[in-house]
Specification:
21% helix, 3-stranded mixed beta sheet, 6 helices, alpha/beta, L-arginine/glycine Amidinotransferase, Chain A, 256 residues
Length: 256
Amino acid sequence: MLLAYTRAVSPALADCELTHLERTPIDVSRAADEHAAYEARLASLGALIRRLPAEADLPDAVFVEDTALVLDEVAVVTRPGAPSRRGETQSVAAALAPHRPLRWIEEPGTMDGGDLLATTGRRVYVGLSSRTNAEAIGQLARLLAPWSYTVIPVEFGGCLHLKSAATEVRDDLMLLNPDWLDPAVFLHHRAVRVDPDEAHAANALALAGQVIHPAHHPLTRRRLEAEGLRVSPLEMAELAKAEAGVTCCSLLVRAA
């Protein structure tokens, strides 16, 4: 059974943290509609939606991916890099506790789940960013050592999170923006590059034989389809104003 933990869009979304995008007006109602369609798409692909408690006073709380890394054996609760987001983790930890033993990133480590890219082969790539520091990467490596995961630090630039620059769209294939990171980092993957006119198109979610991808990046979608992938476009333009991608609005958990 695949569970998808999500959280409603906060009415304060317009006050979200921003790092690489200029702040523009956000239509919160439209963002909520996009989020509802996102949940419906996950459900159509076999996920059982589990909604976390709403956090009206936490503008970024809809981006639940940033609060944890969920692997088959363990869940690691992060310590978000933005202090305003640290209140998001408690409810997520409570939801994950029945499914996985929990481990925690501790001070002075800071880590956002958007910087964590777990791939086939028991590799976890971790972006060094304004939200994730070297201390947290060291902690993660120690926490995952009992299960023989390899933690690989990745330097990148130009965007908020590692998953803004690269996501795994198939076991052998990485969608990435080569202007933001070196494709050679992913030794075990071929690369499909975003269209040069769509710098923010590298975030995709592979699920149930399809690839969910933002509908406002049609040029990159064609590149994915040319690789034989079945792309499932989804409207995300309003949420994208808050530096959102299709991975960040859910935490996927395989449960018995």
